[in-house]
Amino acid sequence: MENGGSSQATMAELQEVQITEEKPLLPGQTPEAAKTHSVETPYGSVTFTVYGTPKPKRPAILTYHDVGLNYKSCFQPLFQFGDMQEIIQNFVRVHVDAPGMEEGAPVFPLGYQYPSLDQLADMIPCILQYLNFSTVIGVGVGAGAYILSRYALNHPDTVEGLVLINIDPNAKGWMDWAAHKLTGLTSSVSEMILGHLFSQEELSRNSELIQKYRNIITHAPNLENIELYWNSYNNRRDLNFERGGDITLKCPVMLVVGDQAPHEDAVVECNSKLDPTQTSFLKMADSGGQPQLTQPGKLTEAFKYFLQGMGYMASSCMTRLSRSRTASLTSAASIDGNRSRSRTLSQSSESGTLPSGPPGHTMEVSC
Fold first, then answer.
1. What is the model's pLDDT at position 351?
2. What is the pTM for the complete model shown?
3. C-beta of residue 108 within 8 angstroms of C-beta of residue 132
4. How far from 134 is each of 62, 118, 262, CA to CA, in Å?
5. Contact (CB, 8 A) for 208 and 198
């Protein structure tokens, strides 16, 4: 280990966990009661759904979905997963629907000026003020990950941690715009959004999951609203993250992307720009473009480690780790600010649990 630093030996290490079995919500295990609210903001009304009750000295988990989805179609498979129940018992959850994306939303009138992603981020303080919540752990996908990042830049004291799936922190360049315009000539809005959510390989295989989400988006009664959200996403500004600079995320961050997913390169680039002492990078094999839909078990396990690293759920039992299972960790340590090298550690878990602690350095984990 470079520098022989004993401190590195004690750094938190997010472990790769090979998970094959699944634990959906058990029969007879009823979902929590939900309360849906709407509040007026300077940029229009926003709807959000609250599960559970606030826990003393604990932040709320606040989610924000991607384009083409709402909170249910984006997050329900993850938060209804069996092993996730241990987490949600310990935190109140706030699921935000972007304006016009909630179930039963009326179509906006022609000419309606949909909020920019920056303005959508500026709606979040109104939600927290309404609920009297002081801090959150954000979980966002795609456009939602961008929105939560912008909010965290503007209100760092209210964000304890971020899980960012498929984040693209960059504004579209001219080449991106040209490609987008050309694609728009030959593809429908729903097909372009599907290409944003899923890999071409997934779309070609046309699995039951793809058929389900193609049907949801293509036949959405609020498709005109979805197109407005899509346009705002494509007009996003650059977040201007800079490692070592003034513009960066101050809280622990877990970046997540599927291997060969549409946004893999963008997430890798984002990882290179964030503080390596605060950032974990999880690249998930066989998860496609939406790991929270296809691999809820793996993502739940990683989320538990992330929360433990923040000092929550210290006594949590990692029930999905089998005895003597080998886990491998690849960590990318920054050298001279520009170059990096990787090292791989292997560890056999005899007790069924693995160590956790605060994020110590940028970690790239393939699982």
1. 30
2. 0.80
3. no
4. 12, 20, 34
5. no
